[in-house]
Amino acid sequence: SSLHAQSRRSASCLPGAAAPQYSAGNMLALFFFIFLLVLVIKRKFFTEPEPSFAYSSKEYEQQQAKLAAQRGAGAGAAQEAQQPTGHPITVLFGSQTGNAEGFALRLEEEAGEHGFHAKVVDLDEYDEENELAYESVVVFVLATYGEGDPTDSATRIYDYLQSKEREATSFRDVRYTVFGLGNRQYERFNEMGYYFDRRMEELGGTRVHELGVGDDNGSLEDDFVTWKQGLWTALRRLFNEEDDSSDVIDDPQAVGLSFALPYPVQWRYEMTREGSSPDETDSYDHPSFNASRLDSKHRVVHAPITVNRELHSELSDRSCRHIEIDVSGVCLKYETGDHLGVFPENDPELVDRLLKRVGEAADSVISFRPRDERKKMPFPCPCTARTALARYTDINALPSKGAILGLASLAKNDKERRKLFTLASKEGKDTYDEEIAGARTNIVELLEEFPSVDITLAEVLELVPRLSPRYYSISSSSTTHPNSVHITVSIVTFPRRSGVGKGVTSTFLSLQKPGSRIPVFIRRSTFKMPADPGVPIIMVGPGTGLAPFRGFVQERREQLAGSVLPGPSLLLFGCRDRKVDFIYREELEKAQKDGALSNLLTAFSREQKHKVYVQNKLEEEEIASEVVELLRSKGAYFYVCGLVAMGRDVKASLQKVLGKTGMSETEAAKYITFLQHKGRYLTDLWS
Which residues is 213 bridged to in the sheet? Predict the structure, then answer.
């Protein structure tokens, strides 16, 4: 440039060069040049970027033209899949709620910008025995389910890696990296991420980028963005490619609309309109529903509700429902301690608000298909617009920063566009935490707040995640009720920006009348009673944490009826007030009277000035003595079900109780670990 040329010409003024003769004009020009140089250096290296997200009108026009072209293409044939270019990498994901899948797809989208071709595969569809050892580069994106378990789709490859048949050189030609998704509230945080990262190295794999650890209790998306920035650099270095990452704006805090051009408008799907109205009665049985929503081990069935009744007294300001589902006609089998997966539908009022916002008729019939024919259908099509939003789209979820960037790329108002960019940026983290996460803002509220966002139904369906199933601990015994699954559902409400927020699934279930059919499936659990009925059990379950133990108590009653003398069973239950929310009270008291339950212990947190919880009750001398005796002398199993925080407190209390028997703090902790390894300390916790 002229500036660089002038700089080179001025080099003769440096020490050691022949001193030229200067006139007053030359001196003035020199001072002016130095002044300009100082301004350039200061602006480039010492000035904080203003969060104005300045953009050029040319860039905006280019973006809108590209968007219009893609929207137009959506009405015609599907866009032809581009021929793979660049170095191949395989992205394998194991997802339970859709977050891991979403991150995997983002890697696929961005790979081309960095010189790679990414193939994304759900682990449930991956042949690890015949493919993994021959991969050049593999990226694992793995969620951890519950207390350190693999997701349903990752279970098979997890077992494969654990097998003793694997050798230290099994994957010596494989380069790999791992991004794990977890929640720090759980004791075994991100267990699958740590395991896959360690195990691949043990089996000879070469780590090409550090393990990424995402925390859903913190800022999962920021964790992912930070990790993937280093991923592309590491992969380019691996293939001896020139690192041009400076040319690709990958950080939401970067100024300029150019960041919005590559990612948000690369729409993966197209929406077409159909002429006839579809029959959606059995859409949950449609092959594409199971293929796109669950792994091959589950089968969704449409089963009728037979009972839906309130468990709290009329004094309660909250609600908890006992729901029974008839599975006799759908061939659905379960075991005591399993989980019931439920596919809910969104609040009809929220669906109507969103349809109005995008200008779409509720009964318009659409098909929503991937542009790349190699990809699977996201949900059964054709269907109505209302069905797409009610059954298949999580419109209550917090909008991700990627989705907010997508909205920013569609905003026509400068002020709104800049605000959306700020929300998606690193420097706007506090704003996002307050206005989105803290206020529990959903996509409907966000679109209503930013009216200049020119968005279609198709773009909403792409930017918003799929509606995932919710899981409930089954509260019945499969021996007592082989044809009926019972669940215990706390109806969730919370404050949000536009008023009172409602839990999607609990609200959906609370509104179902006997005779209503809902889509459900069984998820197997390791939360099981001892194989030997003579082994004692200790159960700790406040609130709806009681659910699986209701099934356990029913099992004990069946054992008694069958002339089997079961071991002692101790239940520690907690709630606020026995007159308000002591669920299944009569049933439990009768079980104690009949001998199906040896000891019913209760903690009512609001019946006295100081609050008493189940963990406090556990530390009481008489109860502590009985628990220690059952554990150490009788080989008892110890079960905990409920909130993660409660489970953590119960474990700490048990450690204190063991400490009073002469164990040191370290010895007590090791003893609990020993129980866990032996399968005698089992938890069923949720955050």
Answer: 180
Can you list the positions of beta strands (E) in 493-543? Answer: 493-496, 499-502, 517-523, 537-540
In the DSSP assignment, the letter for residue 101 is H
DSSP code, position 87: E
Q: Identify the three-state secondary structure at position 321.
A: strand
Is the distance from CB of 342 to CB of 365 less than 8 angstroms? no
12 has catalytic annotation: no
| Active-site residue (options: 227, 232, 267, 686) | 686
Which position among 124, 152, 347, 684 bears the catalytic label? 684
Burial call 47-73: b when 16+ CB within 10 Å, e when fewer: eeeeeebebeeeebeebeeebeebbee
**Helix (H), strand (E) counts: the chain:** 23, 23
H/E stretch holding 680: none
Residue 187, Cβ neighbours under 10 Å: how many? Answer: 15
Beta bridge partner(s), residue 309: 322
Cβ contact 473:548 at 8 Å: yes
Residue of 320, 381, 575, 641 with catalytic role: 641
- Scored b (16 or more CB within 10 A) or e, 200-228 reads beebbbeebbebbbbbbeebbbbbbbebb
Q: In terms of residues, how long is the chain?
A: 687
Query: Is 575 a residue of the active site?
Result: no
User: What residue type is assigned to position 302 of the chain?
Assistant: H
- Is the bond preceding 382 in cis, omega lying within 30 degrees of 0? yes
- Cβ(543)–Cβ(490) below 8 Å: yes
In whole angstroms, what is the distance from residue 418 CA to residue 431 CA?
A: 13
Token pair of 513, please?
Answer: 């009348």
Integer Cα distance of 110 and 263 in angstroms: 7
The residue among 318, 347, 321 whose CA lies nearest residue 508 is 347
- 82: DSSP letter: P
What tokens does 680 get? 């005698």
Cα angle vertex 470, ends 380, 212, to 5°?
95
Distance CA 483, CA 328 (A): 5
8-state DSSP, 411? B
Do residues 229 and 83 lie in contact, with contact meaning Cβ atoms separated by under 8 Å? no
Report the alpha-carbon distance of residue 473 to residue 487 in Å, rounded. Answer: 7
Cα dihedral across residues 349, 326, 520, 643: positive or negative: positive
Closest C-alpha among 627, 570, 573 to residue 597: 570
The three-state secondary structure class of 678 is coil
Q: Are 506 and 584 in contact (CB under 8 A)?
A: no
CA 460 to chain centre: 19
Q: How far apart are CA 247 and CA 115, in angstroms?
A: 13
- Mean pLDDT of successive 10-residue stretches along the chain, which has 687 residues: 38 38 55 58 43 39 52 45 72 90 89 90 92 95 90 92 90 95 89 96 95 88 90 91 47 37 57 72 51 60 97 96 96 95 95 96 91 80 94 93 90 94 88 91 96 95 91 97 98 85 95 96 94 97 98 96 90 97 98 96 94 96 96 97 95 96 93 96 92
Our answer to whether residue 331 is catalytic in this structure is: no
Edge to edge, the sheet with strand 383-384 lists 269-273, 365-370, 383-384
Continuous segment of H or E residues that includes residue 615:
helix 614-618
Largest CA distance in the chain: 115
Catalytic member of 425, 473, 477, 478:
473
Contact 292, 379 (CB under 8 A): yes
Block residue for tokens 């589902």: 325
Give the SS3 label for residue 75.
coil
> pTM for the full model?
0.80
Q: How far apart are CA 398 and CA 561, in angstroms?
A: 50
Cα gap 379→292, rounded to integer Å: 6
Tokens of 302: 């449409």
User: Annotated catalytic, 594?
Assistant: no
Eight-class DSSP state of 298 = -
